[in-house]
Design goal:
Blueprint lengths: L22 E10 L3 E7 L11 H6 L6 E9 L2 E7 L12 H19 L2 E7 L3 E7 L6 H11 L11 H4 L9 E6 L5 H10 L4 E7 L12 E6 L6 E6 L1 H23 L6 E3 L5 H11 L2
Parallel strand pairs: 4-5, 4-7, 7-8, 8-11
Antiparallel strand pairs: 1-3, 2-3, 5-6, 9-10
Helix pairs in contact: 2-3
Length: 287
C-alpha cells in the first residue's frame, strides 16, 4: 500500500447564487437563516418576531412592523470529472496519475470542509464504474482507496467517456472541476462544454514541462503517442525545440479562448496538482 500525505485543501466560491434548499457555506437564492442581509419585509409576510427591526418599523409610513430578511447560505454539490485516457499516464517531472490522485483527495477534502457534497467520475472511452463516486454514496475511506488506485492504474483509450459523465451530474447547477490534459479535438471540447453549460465549470489543464519546455536542444529523442502507440524519432535542434514550445503556447491560447467562449477560465497546472494554485485562481476569478 502506498502511503499518502495529508491532502492540501483550498477555498472555492462560485460567481452567482446557488440554487438549493440545504444550508451550507454559499450564497443561495432562497431567503432564510443566514448572515447576509437582503431586505426588510412586513412581519405578516415573514413571521419571525426575533428579527423585528424597530428603526425600520418606526420609519414605515404604513405603521407596520418590519423584520430583517436574510439570504440563506446554501450547500453546493462539487464534482471532479477526470480524464483517465492513455495520454494521462505520461510521466515527466511528475507522474500525471499521481496528480490525478492528489486532485481527487484535495477537491474531496475541500468540499468536506465547506460542508458540500462531493462526487468523482473518471472516464476514458466510457465512464469507469471503478472510478465513479456519487454524492452521499461513499465515505472518506472509499475516496482514499480510489485515489491510491489512480496512482498505479494502467490508463488506456481516449477521453470520449467524459460526455457520458454528464448524465451523472445533478439537475441543479454544480461546481465541476474538469481535470485533463485536453489533448482532444476542438469539437470534442465544445460538445462537452455545451453539455456542462448549466454548471460552474473549472477546467484544470494538467501539463508537464517535460512534454515541451524541457526538451533537449540537441540530440535524438524518441516520441510515442500514448493513445495510439505510434513512435517517432526526432533529431532535436534549437529551431525545432523553439517550434515545439511555440506550438504548445498556441495550444494554450486556443484552449483559453475556447473555454472563455463558454464563460470558463482555465487553470494550467504544469507542476502537478497544487491546492495553492486553486486558492489563487478563486481569489482572482470569484470576486
Amino acid at each position: 500500500m502506498i502511503a499518502m500525505s495529508r491532502p492540501q485543501t483550498f477555498n472555492y466560491r462560485v460567481s452567482s447564487k446557488v440554487c438549493g434548499t440545504y444550508p451550507g457555506a454559499h450564497v443561495g437564492q432562497m431567503v432564510g437563516s443566514g448572515q447576509l442581509f437582503k431586505r426588510h419585509a412586513p412581519l405578516i409576510a415573514s413571521p419571525d418576531p426575533r428579527r423585528i427591526d424597530l428603526r425600520a418599523s418606526l420609519l414605515d409610513p404604513f405603521q407596520q412592523f418590519n423584520v430583517r430578511v436574510y439570504q440563506q447560505a446554501t450547500q453546493l454539490t462539487v464534482f471532479l470529472l477526470a480524464d483517465l485516457s492513455a495520454s494521462m499516464r505520461f510521466q515527466g517531472d511528475r507522474d500525471k496519475r499521481g496528480a490525478l490522485a492528489d486532485g481527487l483527495l484535495s477537491v474531496a477534502d475541500s468540499a468536506s470542509q465547506a460542508g458540500d457534497l462531493f462526487g468523482f467520475i473518471g472516464c476514458a472511452d466510457a465512464v469507469d464504474s471503478d472510478y465513479l463516486l456519487l454524492p452521499s454514496a461513499h465515505g472518506q475511506q472509499r475516496i482514499r482507496r480510489v485515489a491510491e488506485s489512480l496512482r498505479q492504474v494502467p490508463l488506456h483509450g481516449q477521453a470520449k467517456g467524459l460526455l457520458q459523465a454528464v448524465r451523472y451530474l445533478p439537475a441543479r447547477p454544480a461546481l465541476v472541476f474538469l481535470l485533463s490534459d485536453f489533448y482532444w479535438p476542438a469539437g470534442q471540447i465544445t460538445h462537452l462544454l455545451q453539455a456542462l453549460s448549466r454548471h460552474f465549470v473549472v477546467p484544470l489543464a494538467l501539463w508537464d514541462k517535460q512534454e515541451y519546455e524541457r526538451l533537449p536542444a540537441w540530440g535524438s529523442i524518441r516520441l510515442r503517442d500514448l493513445e495510439n502507440g505510434r513512435q517517432r524519432t526526432l533529431l532535436m535542434r534549437p529551431a525545432l525545440r523553439r517550434k515545439i514550445i511555440a506550438a504548445f503556447e498556441r495550444r494554450r491560447d486556443e484552449l483559453t479562448r475556447q473555454f472563455r467562449a463558454f464563460g470558463c477560465e482555465p487553470l494550467f497546472l504544469d507542476e502537478g496538482f497544487q491546492a495553492e494554485r486553486l486558492n489563487q485562481y478563486f481569489l482572482r476569478h470569484s470576486a
